[in-house]
Specification:
By secondary structure, the chain is an alpha+beta fold. The chain is about 45% helix and about 10% strand. Helix 15 packs antiparallel against helix 16 (about 390-415). The radius of gyration is 48 Å and the shape is elongated. Keywords: Glycoprotein, Membrane, Transmembrane, Transmembrane helix, Transport. InterPro entries: MFS, MFS_dom, MFS_trans_sf. One of its GO terms (molecular function) is transmembrane transporter activity.
């Protein structure tokens, strides 16, 4: 037989300490109502059957209607209505009550009314009507408005509809809070609120699934966009269920029609037994008075501020699709589906929390604080973790903590307000829900689209809100524990009523102290997390807004924050240890050593003044020495470093051994003349530059260096003016080299003239007038063929002394080159190197220079950065010519292993047989002489490359070319040969209009390997400093936990270090009253071996008294106990 419960007495709520001005009604049941536990259980199940499924579906539809705006946005609504990020935020905000759209002309703020403003009036109406009629009625209206939202065409129409939907929905959530608090006992509410909140959670999951199905499956059906179908389908479903709910929903216990008279009596009696006020019909406090009483109660405001931080969950719920979309799930339907796991995990956590919260209802505050702290940690982690998968997992966990704390906080508030009059409770619950939702106004602006994908501002603000919110329920729970320890009647317990007893009381916990301990523990955990992130981020690239850069920036705050945190934790822990030792009984010296060492300087001075030299004293000094070391470790654990990544890749360059095409019918000699002439004119500016005016690579002339013939690498000086290049035009190369630092070795070649015959002779004539100048006795090369093994070789000679009128110009020059009558081929016998003879006249001398023409093969190392290249080393190549020097088109015209000596093979042997003659024509006709006073830039370049257009000293004759010396002449004439030759291979490649890699080419290319060194700024973690920081942080973490535990198990008051300690009783006679003029530490030094104890000094009365005793002087003392009262 089940035990019966009887209620025959009215419960007088005046036994409770209410808020100001609140005296609840004395509701009596005149006849005894007796019920069994089984009967009560059956009644609760019946109430659940009518309320829970009905309310669950109603709230599910309500929350889906409220949050479908987020799914509609990513399904195309924002694009169709041309909504900006700020406009979307305003659309969210107007639903909840107030914000501001700023008018472009009047610059006025438009105040919107809706969800927030109408909640209290709605609950005032509800408490005076029947919920079964009122709630379905407003549900039908907002369902109709939701359907109308499907036809909006502009941003302003959507705002208006959202305002009215907010007005209608405003009465639903606070109405449900009132109904639950009017039907269930305090220890039954958490599970029911968890079921209630699960509707909101699953609305997100179902909303995501339904939105994905509707927007994807009905997109374009009957010419209607998918997001418009979303409003239609959910609006019609809301209207349909509202009609059904009108027949199922329970009213209040005193007027419901779904219970029998006995069931109603039991329902009322069990609530009265639990100190929940039950309102009868016709009982009115008054609308204004109920509002005033609710606003004057401090509990109302406490829950308002606490609930404001929890509404971060509601803010996030609107942005879940957007946040997930920003994490890399680019498909709209995929982003909507990926929100489902967020709600699924939140549902499980909320259900489990609600179940256990009823079983340990006295600890609901700690449950809320635990979930909020957990969400805060995950929110902070989201700010520093940028891996998409990790951030998604953290977002799932963060949402679970927020939703679970939301459900428990509602039951916490409803049970706390249970002793209020029903109408006052209705207003208080509505105010909490309404004003708490004001947080969603600024919350709607926390995740702007331009902050994607990291959303640091949103998660950062929510982290701060959660940190504030975690402390508030802890305070309420600790007040409850203190009340519980005083033995107060738990049936009359109100968790938010502070203990106001002034008489004897039991030892109690300090909510402020434990909250501070929790905060300090979280802070040191933050440093441990920072150390973990530091080591795991080692080697990560430093970029703007990256996690690595964020961690590096954070290190600069370590030397400031860590010592402060260290001092707070260690100081509090040492004080807690001293108080605990005092409770057990310890010597004055030991207690003073601990209590005086709560700072770094204090630890040192205390040991000196107490003359302490023991392990404890040394340990305390060493402990405090860890503070600056930890601060420096937090600064030096990370630094910026450089990582060089090397990659190899091929590139192409023009082969200077390509055939000379300037004289062929396929190319224009004019282009070659233009490039040759422009290079001569610009030689003054670019003569010693590593690249020509078109960016081509100039090849250093290895003959200009000493000891070049041993094939060793020759370092090129950094001073550009000291380099002699082989040509005024460089080697075209693949311009698609990386912009990063790139190095390569170019295997190439150039022509070089060696002039063993280098002499001058006097002119035969004196200087007559200019008109009497006669041509010098120029050499007749055709009558003096060179001695070549091939008898078919002939001379090709061209001179620069025939003017346009055909007269002889005596101040010119002539140049000739040995060639073959029928062309030179590898099939002929080996021969000597080509000979080049130069003759020129000055005013008094005649120069005759006989040279041999060779090909010099060199290897040149280049360093390039962002398209700018410079040679760093050069050597005479020890290798034979690369086979790639010979183009496919003319591969039969020469081979690297042909019978010729490679020194005697030049680019003139490739291509057509008339190349040498065309080459000399191009050189001698580059600047035509019209008179004896005409400039000869070729002579000017040989004499001075920096002054090619200089006028001769006497206006007619240039200086003798032999005056510059043999080496300079060889270099400069070779430069002219190479410049003209490169210009005539392919002018379009030289100027960059044709790439080197052009397939339809008449030139050869060489393939080379380049090495690119990519220098990246990376985060470097110093392993030694990391180990130091981690060890110190773990030591501080253990100290912080130990301090919190000691403070929790210490029963005596914390009196050390305060003047109020002198007001405590003491039984320390005799020795302790000596030397009253000594300083405190001096007296402690003299008495440091005296044992004292803080405990109960009065045992002969019902109430004890806390005071100091000296057990060494036979004073009786006992320890404090939790269940004993003390004055």
């Amino acid at each position: 037989m089940a035990a019966s419960k009887t209620s025959t007495e009215a419960v007088d709520q005046k036994d409770f300490l209410e808020g100001p001005g609140q005296v609840t009604e004395h509701v009596e049941i005149t006849q005894a109502v007796t019920w069994t536990a089984e009967e009560e259980k059956k009644l609760v199940r019946k109430i659940d059957m009518f309320l829970l499924p009905n309310i669950w579906l109603m709230y599910l539809l309500s929350y889906m209607d409220r949050t479908n705006i987020g799914n509609a946005k990513i399904a195309g609504m924002a694009d169709d209505l041309k909504l900006t990020s700020s406009q979307y935020s305003i659309i969210l905000v107007v639903f909840f009550g107030k914000v501001l759209a700023r008018h472009s002309r009047t610059n006025q703020l438009t105040l919107s009314v809706g969800y927030v403003i109408f909640e209290p009036p709605s609950n005032m109406i509800l408490v005076r009507t029947r919920p079964s009629l009122y709630l379905p009625a407003i549900m039908i209206i907002w369902g109709v408005l939701t359907c109308i939202m499907s036809v909006v065409q502009s941003y302003h129409h959507l705002i208006i509809l959202r305002v009215f939907v907010g007005v209608m929905e405003s009465g639903f959530a606070p109405g449900i809070l009132l109904i639950f608090s009017s039907w269930y006992k305090r220890t039954e509410q958490s599970k029911r609120f968890a079921v209630f909140m699960s509707a909101a959670i699953l609305s997100g999951a179902f909303g995501g699934l339904l939105a994905g199905a509707i927007t994807g499956g009905l997109e374009g059906a009957h010419g209607i966009r998918g997001w418009r179908w979303l409003f239609i389908v959910e609006g019609v479903a809301t209207i349909g269920w509202a009609i059904i709910a009108a027949f199922l929903l329970l009213d209040f216990p005193v007027n419901t029609k779904h219970l029998t008279d006995r069931e109603r009596a039991i329902a009322i009696a069990r609530l009265q037994e639990d100190s929940v006020t039950v309102r009868g019909q016709g009982e009115n406090v008054g609308k204004i008075q109920s509002l005033v009483l609710a606003l004057r109660d401090w509990r109302t405001w406490g829950f308002i501020f606490g609930y404001m931080v929890i509404v971060g969950s509601s803010t996030l719920s609107y942005f879940y699709p957007t946040l997930v979309h920003g994490l890399g799930y680019s498909s709209t339907v995929q982003a909507q589906y990926m929100t489902v796991p967020i709600y699924a995990v939140a549902f499980v956590c909320t259900a489990i929390s609600g179940y256990f919260a009823d079983r340990i209802s006295n600890y609901r505050g700690l449950i809320i604080a635990g979930w909020l702290s957990f969400s805060m940690i995950t929110s902070i982690a989201v700010c520093v973790v940028y891996n998409f998968t990790a951030r998604y997992a953290l977002l799932v966990l963060m949402a679970a903590g927020l939703w679970a704390s939301n459900a428990i906080s509602l039951s916490f508030a409803a049970s706390t307000f249970g002793s209020m009059d029903a109408e006052v409770r209705a207003v208080a619950l509505a105010l909490m829900n309404a004003l708490g939702n004001l947080a969603q106004i600024y919350g709607a602006y926390l995740f702007p689209s331009d902050d994607a994908p990291k959303y640091l501002m949103g998660f950062g603000v929510i982290s701060g809100m959660l940190g504030f919110g975690a402390a508030m329920p802890s305070k309420f729970c600790l007040e409850m524990l203190n009340i519980f320890r005083t033995g107060k009647n738990q049936q009359k317990w109100d968790p938010l009523i502070p203990l106001q007893r002034k008489e004897a009381q039991k030892p109690r916990l300090s909510w402020l102290g434990l909250s501070l301990d929790l905060l300090l523990i979280l802070c040191i955990i933050t440093f441990i997390v920072f150390a973990h992130l530091a080591i795991t981020s080692n080697g990560h690239i430093l970029t703007e807004d990256s996690r690595a850069q964020f961690l590096l920036n954070v290190t600069f705050y370590g030397p400031t924050i860590f010592p402060i945190l260290f001092a707070a934790i260690v100081g509090r822990a040492l004080k807690a240890l001293a108080t605990w030792e005092l409770q057990k009984g310890s010597t004055i010296g030991h207690v003073e050593t601990l209590s005086g060492s709560t700072t770094l300087i204090g630890a040192i001075i205390t040991q000196i003044q107490l003359r302490n030299l023991n392990l404890v004293a040394i340990s305390l000094v060493v402990l405090w020495a860890l503070s600056p070391v930890g601060g420096q470790a937090s600064l030096r654990v990370l630094r910026q470093g450089t990582r060089v990544t090397k990659t190899n890749h091929q590139f192409y360059a023009l082969d200077p051994m390509s055939s000379w095409e300037a004289g062929s019918s396929n190319h224009y000699p004019m282009l070659t003349h233009t490039l040759f002439a422009s290079s001569l004119i610009a030689s003054r500016k670019l003569y010693n530059k590593p690249q020509d005016i078109w960016g081509n690579l100039r090849i250093p002339m290895v003959e200009a260096f000493d000891n070049y013939q041993d094939h060793r690498w020759i370092k090129i000086p950094d001073n550009d003016t000291g380099i002699t290049f082989s040509s005024l035009i460089g080697i075209p190369f693949d311009r698609e080299l990386p912009v990063e630092q790139t190095s390569f070795t170019l295997n190439t070649s150039y022509m070089y003239l060696d002039c063993p015959t280098f002499h001058t002779s006097p002119r035969e004539h004196e200087q007559p007038p200019i008109e009497g100048y006669k041509a010098p006795s120029w050499t007749n090369f055709t009558a003096d063929p060179p001695s070549l093994e091939n008898p078919d070789n002939t001379w090709l000679h061209y001179h620069k002394f025939v003017g346009d009128d055909g007269s002889i110009v005596a101040n010119g020059f002539q140049i000739t080159m040995a060639s073959c009558d029928w062309g030179c081929s590898q099939w002929f016998k080996p021969r000597e190197a080509r000979r080049v003879i130069w003759e020129s006249a000055s005013a008094k001398t005649f120069a005759h220079i006989d040279c041999t023409l060779h090909t010099t093969y060199v290897d040149v190392k280049y360093d390039c950065l962002d398209g700018s290249c410079s040679p760093i080393e050069v050597r005479l190549s020890p290798n034979k010519p690369d086979p790639s020097h010979f183009s496919n088109l003319f591969s039969s015209d020469g081979k690297p292993h042909d019978p010729w000596n490679t020194r005697n093979f030049t680019g003139f042997e490739k291509g057509y047989s008339n190349i040498p003659s065309n080459f000399l024509i191009a050189m001698t006709s580059a600047f035509r002489m019209n008179s004896v006073r005409a400039l000869v830039p070729l002579l000017g370049f040989i004499l001075s490359p920096n002054d090619t257009t200089a006028i001769p000293p006497d206006g007619v004759f240039y200086e003798d070319v032999t005056s510059i010396g043999r080496a300079k002449f060889q270099e400069r004439l070779s430069q002219l040969f190479n410049t003209l030759f490169l210009a005539g291979i392919e002018p379009s490649v030289i100027v960059g209009t044709m790439p080197v890699t052009e397939k339809e080419q008449y030139f050869a290319t060489s393939t080379h390997t380049a090495e690119t060194r990519l220098s990246e700024n990376i985060l470097v973690c110093n392993k030694a400093w990391f180990t130091t920081m981690l060890i110190i942080c773990l030591i501080v973490f253990v100290i912080s936990l130990s301090g919190a535990i000691l403070r929790a198990i210490t029963l005596v008051p914390d009196a050390l270090g305060t003047l109020s300690i002198i007001t405590l009783d003491n039984r320390c006679e005799k020795d302790l009253q000596k030397a009253s003029m000594l300083d405190g530490l001096e007296r402690s030094r003299l008495l440091k071996n005296v044992t004292i104890k803080l405990g109960n000094v009065r045992q002969d009365s019902p109430s004890g008294r806390v005071g100091f005793t000296a057990p060494a002087n036979n004073e009786d003392v006992v320890q404090l106990h939790w269940n004993t009262y003390y004055e």
